Amino acid sequence: MLRAGALVALGGATAPLTGCDPFDRDDEPPPPDALEPLAAEALALEARHRAAAATAPALAARLTPIADAHRAHADELRRVIGRPAPSGPSTGPTGPASGAPADAPDAVLAELRRAEQQGHANAAKAGATAPADRAALLGSIAAARATHVEALA
Predict the structure, then answer these.
(1) What confidence tens digit (pLDDT) does each residue in 51-84 have?
(2) How far apart are CA 140 and CA 110, in angstroms?
(3) Is residue 17 over pLDDT 80?
(4) Which one-letter DSSP state was computed for residue 153?
């Protein structure tokens, strides 16, 4: 008995045991976290604001801080979820708004306001049903999105 313990301690008995783990199975990936849609939405909102700022430069000073806030929210949501944010540029709608011409800033702002209103509703709904450790973050995101609606007015 003592010899077997010494062999295990020295690593001599580990080679025959590899691949024999009773827990060695092909686990399926964990189900998506409930915050995944909000993280994706934050990235999509960031992309929309950046695209609008690029196509309507007169709005860039107004839209860039909002886009930055959405990126920060996405990063924090990903941290809480425990999965890294996708690398590279944000994904989502690439146009400033659905069909709004760049020379119509009022139309661009109206489309962004609608997107922010929907984002606010989504964050508020998620916060109302979230566990306490996530509710504060979701409340903060909902409040920020409500502020974005006003900043775009």
Answers:
(1) 999 999 999 999 999 999 999 999 999 999 998 7
(2) 23
(3) no
(4) -
